Amino acid sequence: MAAYEFVTVWRFEAPLAPVWDVIYRAEEWPAWWRGVLRVETLKEGGADHVGSVSRYTWKSKLPYLLTFEMETTRVEPLAAIEGRAFGELAGRGRWRFTHDGGVTTVRYDWHVETTKRWMNLLAPLARPVFKWNHDVVMDWGAEGLARRLGIKRLK
What we know:
This protein is of the alpha+beta class and 155 residues long. The chain has helices at residues 16-24, 29-32, 117-149, and strands at 3-13, 36-43, 53-59, 65-76, 80-87, 89-100, 103-114, 152-154. Strands 2-3-4-5-6-7-1-8 form an eight-stranded antiparallel β-sheet.
């Protein structure tokens, strides 16, 4: 399997709570995040969603779909959401939220391996393209979140 480590940082001129809320409610991502085709709940977790499992289907700039499951492993309200991915991607993701001086910063750390044979075969040559593709999809997310909340995205 080919391993990838991506770090994405979004900054918004906005209070923390609404940004947190929109990201926390992943089942609503398809309504505002271009590229997220479906989020299906496979298993309900506790009141804080820990233990829940959802299936995500993504479409990107590249001509393929990517589907994987995500189990929520940790939720610290207004501060962090962590999960374990399995399926066509395997690894860990972590959202972190901070607020300072009227600016909410969201950081996503994504440490994954591809499990699709064709992706692994292409990885030595396609790694920069896969990174670019990831960055495009995450940019769509930041723009969609800003539109959803009617807030300003800072670059």
